[in-house]
Specification:
eleven-stranded mixed sheet, globular, 19 helices
């Protein structure tokens, strides 16, 4: 049952002038047909799009240095003869900076369809056994061993020795027709110019085994019946293999898009498609060669992050039996034993070599990757600062931190991926030098039935749209993947932040695990209600442990939930929170009633040997349920419907979703790929839950979730330790629970947040029962706050200390902005260390209007305290049908401050090494944005002032370290352009948040506080004159701490401070100088710290501060 959507529409030609616009950069796709293959005089076909200088494209940073003449020569060489590809076999895509060549047009690996059924892939002795043979419960079979699944205990013959894989390659010589399409609309990208290439039919060699063996005929007939009972996909039918290339009319750095359509073969000839290789070739650089590659893991818990060219890709430490199912998304094709030379391709040895390459000799990224040139790549021989104690430089106790270039000052980039994964799980591979690349779409042996099947309705397999974007240096400003992320969101109808407010709450898992009961849950609900004036929450999630077994969702544990699950939901709602419930709808325990021999053993996905497919969990092995089976989908519908409509839960945490698409051919409909099965599963969940239920995906293939879930786990489970505790391998870079893994992925996948879904970084653990230090807990809180992820606690709240609880009060309420990760593509170990937000009061009118519409008299127990953050987050998040935001608009990373607070930069700096380090923060990461940086057409770099000058500021900057509450003054740039920066000594795993604000010496300024990480969300109003200041702090929350204020006076003897209507305590903590023309400093004011207490008890003057000077 192929699932497809109509994601392209033909329209009448648009009036667009595609002619060159003078001396401008051009992006060119080109394919050249051999003379004998061309039916006309035209041999070279191009898609060509000129890109005029873009108002948002900034000039190369002065920090990167001038380009060399040799670079100009290399660029000129690259651009020479771009109207034709490098060879007559494939195609090329060229920008002024990099060039992508594919050595063929398309390659498909397939096998006879009858060799894809489970009755064949079991061992020879058991090949004729029935599909429903009861699987053995042996441990070896459960983890997918080589033992037979038929129950006889014999050893299976290696599948590679029994399957006839065929590889067909099409080159330009196999193009039989080229159709030009003036305007083709691709959802998420827009209108494109396109070329549709019709290829020669898929040839079948004489040794292709067409005939189904007699002992398999009965089983084959059953599988055909299941396939034919599924509706044919709704797609534009083609009569021959077709590939469509297109280039958008208007987009910065226009991407190349292409997709493949493969129709049924004649009559009753069925094949099983393994892989579509849609590109295999090379990347050439004119000037700056690639240095890093961003790896995106398959699902929520898989590794994500950048790797330095030549360094090994981080891998799970556990054996494949425990980790393979976690990380197996797309895969490279199997080596074809039968290579069909139907074209002029001289040799396929290179392609076959890439198929069999080991993971140590190549990089592999699921769904998409981003290859960048963001600095000099360190070699393997260079000592690395971010490494664990005990290896190189173990005696060094303290180091200076050598940051690479920031992404915003980097060079060209290449984004490769797909717009969706509805059809196949795609994987991008690259060699260690980032020169040889390939893109494979895994069809997983899905059967393409012959045209005579399905009552004569032709079937067809097609790929999702593939994408290659050659990104110009600096055109992306801060995030080279920004256009791709937006296109994917639009293509999949993403719905971030559209279903309720940002979630802040509690989850039962990490303290109680599956030991929950009505009693201990209600005890924590009572504590949550008592915390209203400290950390108001709007959701409580009942996690695993309420049922007897996974799969038997209505069979509650006896003696634990006597009042029923609806009673728990009522308790949560009565405490002013949304009731949340955990489910793993496509998973079942091995001892569940659902999958027992007396009920539905046929629901279980089986591997190619007939054993239950390996679920790969280090905690326990469980069964994955077959989403292609209508009975399974009804079971899931009933479980979801019961939880929502009978029990009353409107937030569902849907876990272990990858179980719906485990690898194995033991499933109901063999015409469905694993990606299609995952799409079917998520569609079933959303339809059962309804549009208004907040779905949190977990353990879910990342791309599949877009458009279905509201929140999405994007990291491995957190844990009570920095690294996985013994006996687990501490060096794991995969899915094992630890705070380090949670932090790594939460930062590396921060760009997905507010675009594809609301990121869930997993819970914050506060309790002293963990082995986490205070600085590690503060670092985790910083990551959650800076990325604006979901904020869920998971301790026994009755036992959390006051000091640990104060950490979480400093990041609540949420700010509504998601930080830019400044070194995502230039980090040297996959752990970025710099994130930046900025704050401004320029939109204070909107904030005031919002507050007027909110009922300020509403009781604390009835208000959602994240409403303001949600309002601004929605304005800056992805919204369907809206244009792509300018690359440096920065609304997504902007915090809205009350009027009078000005504009400033917020930068978090982290020391993820295992020793104390001195960090020197790059100047461009610290300097505040221009005052006009919020508007379209504004100054286009943080280094520029509103008038475009670099040195307009002569007074320097206030700098406040939030966690340390330390003030310092940063001098302005010197006439030579030199700028002092901040150096900070941080302990291992420690993070500091710096607030950097321009000194305005004529008026008082609010510097910040130790109350809230934003240094503005604690403030309701700030009014200043030349002799007084009136500050009103928010009185909704019980807070104790201090604020810092700059006074434009030198003599502080006349300063008078009142807090809550009584004389306040204050102390001078800093002197603010001005650098005179002769270079000597002159004092212009003082910075004072005022101790404050907010009681949140409704007192008239609570939170009010007055200062006279």
């Amino acid at each position: 049952m192929n699932q497809s959507v109509n994601d392209e529409r033909k329209r009448s030609p648009l009036s667009s002038d595609n002619s060159p616009l003078g001396d401008v950069d051009e992006w060119i796709f080109s394919i050249r047909l051999p003379e004998e293959a061309s039916s006309s005089n035209q041999r070279v076909f191009n898609l060509q799009q000129a890109q005029p200088p873009h108002p948002k494209t900034r000039s190369p940073s002065p920090l990167s240095g001038p380009s060399s003449r040799s670079g100009d020569v290399e660029r000129e060489s690259l651009l020479t003869n771009t109207n034709s590809p490098s060879n007559d076999l494939g195609w090329s895509f060229t920008s002024p900076y990099w060039k992508l060549d594919s050595k063929f047009v398309l390659q498909i690996t397939y096998r006879p369809a009858w060799q894809a059924i489970p009755e064949f892939t079991r061992c020879n002795a058991c090949a004729a056994k029935a599909v429903s043979a009861k699987p053995s419960n042996s441990f070896a079979q459960s983890v997918g061993s080589y033992l037979c699944g038929g129950g006889c205990g014999c050893r299976a013959v290696a599948l590679s020795d029994r399957i006839d894989f065929f590889t067909q390659t099409w080159t330009a010589a196999d193009v039989v027709n080229v159709e030009k399409i003036d305007a083709l609309e691709v959802i998420g990208v827009g209108y494109c110019q396109a070329l549709r290439l019709t290829l020669s039919p898929l040839p079948l060699s004489d040794d292709f085994p067409r005939q189904v063996p007699s002992h398999l005929e009965e089983a084959w007939a059953i599988h055909l019946q299941n396939i034919e009972s599924s509706p044919a996909p709704h797609v534009d039918q083609v009569s021959a293999p077709t590939i469509t290339f297109c280039l958008p009319f208007s987009q910065v750095d226009p991407p190349l898009l292409w997709k493949v359509q493969l129709p049924s073969l004649d009559d009753d000839l069925d094949i099983a498609v393994e892989t579509f290789t849609v590109m295999e070739g090379t990347l050439a650089a004119a000037e700056e060669p690639p240095t890093h590659i961003y790896i995106n893991g398959y699902q929520s818990w898989s590794f994500a992050g950048s790797v330095v060219m030549g360094h090994k890709q981080p891998q799970p430490a556990l054996p494949g039996a425990f980790s393979r199912a976690f990380d197996l998304g797309g895969s490279v094709p199997p080596p074809g034993e039968h290579v069909l030379e139907a074209s002029t391709l001289d040799s396929l040895s290179g392609a076959k070599a890439s198929h069999g390459a080991s993971s140590e000799s190549m990089y592999q990224s699921d769904f998409f990757t981003c290859i960048t040139a963001d600095g000099d790549a360190p070699t393997e021989l260079e000592p690395r600062i971010l490494q664990r104690a005990g290896i190189a430089e173990a005696r060094v106790q303290e180091e200076a931190f050598p940051f690479q270039k920031l992404d915003e000052t980097g060079g060209p980039a290449l984004v490769l991926g797909w717009l969706a994964q509805r059809q196949q799980f795609g994987v991008v591979t690259a060699d260690l030098k980032l020169r040889k690349l390939a893109m494979h779409a895994s069809a997983d042996g899905s059967i393409l039935p012959g045209s005579a099947r399905r009552n004569g309705h032709a079937s067809q397999q097609e790929t999702d749209w593939a994408l290659a974007q050659l990104v110009s240096p600096h055109s992306y400003d801060e995030e080279p993947m920004v256009h791709y992320l937006h296109s994917v969101a639009a293509h999949n109808h993403a719905r971030p932040l559209q279903n309720g407010t940002l979630l802040t709450g509690w989850c039962s898992w990490y303290h109680y695990y599956n030991g929950i009961s009505e009693y201990n849950l209600r005890e924590n609900f009572t504590k949550l209600a008592a915390m209203r004036t400290r950390v108001p929450t709007n959701v409580a999630v009942v996690d695993d442990g309420y049922m007897r077994a996974w799969g038997d969702w209505s069979d509650l544990k006896p003696g634990k939930f006597e009042c029923g699950m609806h009673s728990i939901a009522d308790d949560i709602a009565s405490n002013g929170m949304r009731p949340g419930l955990w489910l793993a709808p496509f998973a079942a325990d091995k001892h569940s009633k659902l999958t027992s021999s007396s009920q539905h053993p046929e629901y279980v996905i089986r591997n190619d040997f007939g054993a239950p497919a390996n679920s790969g969990n280090c905690g326990k092995f469980f069964y994955g349920l077959d989403a292609t089976n209508p009975g399974v989908r009804q079971h899931v519908h009933d479980a979801i419907h019961r939880a929502v409509y009978d029990w009353g839960y409107n937030v569902l945490k849907i876990d272990f979703l990858y179980a719906a698409c485990l690898q194995g051919n033991g499933k109901y409909d063999l015409s469905v790929s694993r990606a299609q099965a995952m799409h079917i599963a998520l569609d079933a969940i959303r339809k059962a839950a309804g549009p208004d239920v907040f779905l949190i995906g977990c353990g879910c293939p990342v791309a599949s979730a877009i458009g279905f879930v509201d929140g999405m786990r994007i990291s491995a489970d957190t844990g009570p330790t920095w690294l996985p505790p013994p006996p687990l391998p501490w060096w794991d870079n995969g899915t094992l629970p630890s705070l380090r893994s949670m932090i790594r992925n939460s930062i590396s996948r921060a760009p997905l947040g507010h675009r594809w879904f609301h990121n869930d970084p997993d819970c914050l653990l506060l309790g002293e029962s963990t082995r986490l230090s205070d600085v590690e807990v503060s670092s985790a809180a910083t990551v959650v706050a800076m990325t604006c992820g979901m904020m869920l606690l998971s301790d026994d709240l009755t036992k959390v200390s006051l000091s640990r609880m104060r950490i979480v009060t400093k990041i609540f309420p949420m700010a509504g902005a998601s930080a830019i990760v400044l070194d995502l593509h230039s980090t040297n170990d996959g752990l970025p260390s710099l994130m930046r937000l900025w704050a401004t009061d320029r939109d204070w009118e909107k904030q005031d209007e919002l507050r007027k519409t909110m009922n300020q008299s509403t009781a604390n127990t009835e208000r959602d305290h994240n409403a303001e953050a949600t309002f601004f987050a929605r304005q800056a998040s992805f919204v369907l049908h809206e244009d792509v935001p300018p690359p440096n608009e920065r609304k997504r990373s902007c915090i809205h401050a009350p009027t009078g607070l000005g504009s400033w930069t917020i930068v978090s700096v982290s020391n993820w090494s295992d020793r104390t380090a001195v960090l020197s923060v790059p100047q461009s990461a610290l300097l505040p944005p221009p005052l006009s940086g919020f508007d379209a057409g504004a100054a286009d770099t943080f280094l520029d002032d509103e008038d475009g000058s670099k040195n307009a500021n002569q007074h320097g900057y206030h700098v406040l370290g939030f966690w340390s509450s330390r003030y310092s003054w940063l001098p302005p740039q010197s006439e030579s352009g030199e700028q002092e920066t901040i150096k900070s000594r941080l302990e291992a795993h420690e993070t500091e948040i710096f607030h950097v604000k321009r000194v305005e010496p004529e008026l008082p300024q609010y510097i910040g506080s130790d109350l809230h990480f934003s240094c503005c969300k604690e403030v309701l109003s700030f009014v200043a004159t030349t002799s007084s200041i009136q500050i009103e702090l928010k009185s909704d929350y019980d807070r104790v701490g201090s604020i810092l204020v700059f006074l434009p006076v030198i003599n502080t003897q006349n300063v008078k401070v009142a807090v809550n209507g009584t004389p306040g305590q204050w102390v001078t903590v800093g002197n603010t100088p001005k650098v005179a023309e002769n270079g000597s400093p002159r004092l212009v004011g003082r910075v004072i710290r005022i101790m404050v207490v907010v009681h949140a008890e409704g007192e008239v003057q609570d939170g009010q501060i007055s200062i006279e000077f």
